[in-house]
């Protein structure tokens, strides 16, 4: 990859620029406990993983088509699967869903601000493009990422989830740039890296447990590579 040929960078959100705090399953456990659930942390974690995998299978069967309604349905189905012992399910679901709309629930990943600032100084355009719903726009705006990224694209509005090719084509259309001039950065091998590469878009995978071509352990490591390439 020739970094100087890159005119714009599209970033995944969760796990790439921001992360949930507490973790998703810890938040589920705490809200469930608040509403009367007797499930242990480990039980919540196991149920959430299974519920999430069920929804992923449904997405694949539906060719990754999505919408705001589908995303709401997804989270309702996951919470329903995890909790069968809360006193007021609807209240528990709404509180959980609303919590993950709060910017305070999504701190920036270490190195994110420095990398975005550097790219902005280099006049590189940036957007956020993620499998998410309407909540992400305000989260990005309030974390400060929005000051440096010109647009937030979410699957619920694009009508396709990653790794569908139409998701990545939408990035090209938004930026009005050919795919070869856009770099996609994410932390999921199938959704982010392979999804982008399938249409010929350059991509970077963030993976703290692996090394390899176009794989970096952190945003800090990626920043160093980019700075070296520019210099």
Verbal overview:
With 231 residues, the chain is of the alpha/beta class. It folds into two domains: 3-19 and 106-230, HAD superfamily/HAD-like (Rossmann fold), CATH 3.40.50.1000; 24-99. 49% of the residues lie in helices and 11% in strands. Strands 3-2-1-4-5-6 form a six-stranded parallel β-sheet, with helices on both faces. Helix 1 crosses helix 2 (41-61), helix 2 packs antiparallel against helix 3 (68-82) and helix 5 (112-121) runs parallel beside helix 10 (219-230). The model has no long low-confidence stretch (mean pLDDT 96).
What are the defining features of this structure?
231 residues, alpha/beta, Rossmann fold, 2 domains, 6-stranded parallel sheet, 10 helices, globular
């Amino acid at each position: 990859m020739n970094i100087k040929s890159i005119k714009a960078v599209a970033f995944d959100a969760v796990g790439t620029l921001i992360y949930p705090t507490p973790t998703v399953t810890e938040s589920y456990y705490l809200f469930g406990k608040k509403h009367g659930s007797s499930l242990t942390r480990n039980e919540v974690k196991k149920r959430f993983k299974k519920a999430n995998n069920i929804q992923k299978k449904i997405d694949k069967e539906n060719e990754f088509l999505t919408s705001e309604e589908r995303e709401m349905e997804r989270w309702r189905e996951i919470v329903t699967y995890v909790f069968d012992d809360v006193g007021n399910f609807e209240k528990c679901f709404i509180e959980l869903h609303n919590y993950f709309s709060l910017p305070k629930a999504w701190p920036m990943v270490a190195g994110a601000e420095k990398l975005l600032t550097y790219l902005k100084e280099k006049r590189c355009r940036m957007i956020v493009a993620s499998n998410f719903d309407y909540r992400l726009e305000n989260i990005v705006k309030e974390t400060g990422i929005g000051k440096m990224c010109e647009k937030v694209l979410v699957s619920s509005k694009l009508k396709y989830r990653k790794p569908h090719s139409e998701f990545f084509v939408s990035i090209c259309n938004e930026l009005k740039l050919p795919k070869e001039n856009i770099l996609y950065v994410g932390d999921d091998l199938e959704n982010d890296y392979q999804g982008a590469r399938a249409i010929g878009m350059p991509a970077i995978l963030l993976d703290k447990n692996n090394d390899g071509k176009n794989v970096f352990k952190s945003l800090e490591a990626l920043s160093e590579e980019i700075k070296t390439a520019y210099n």
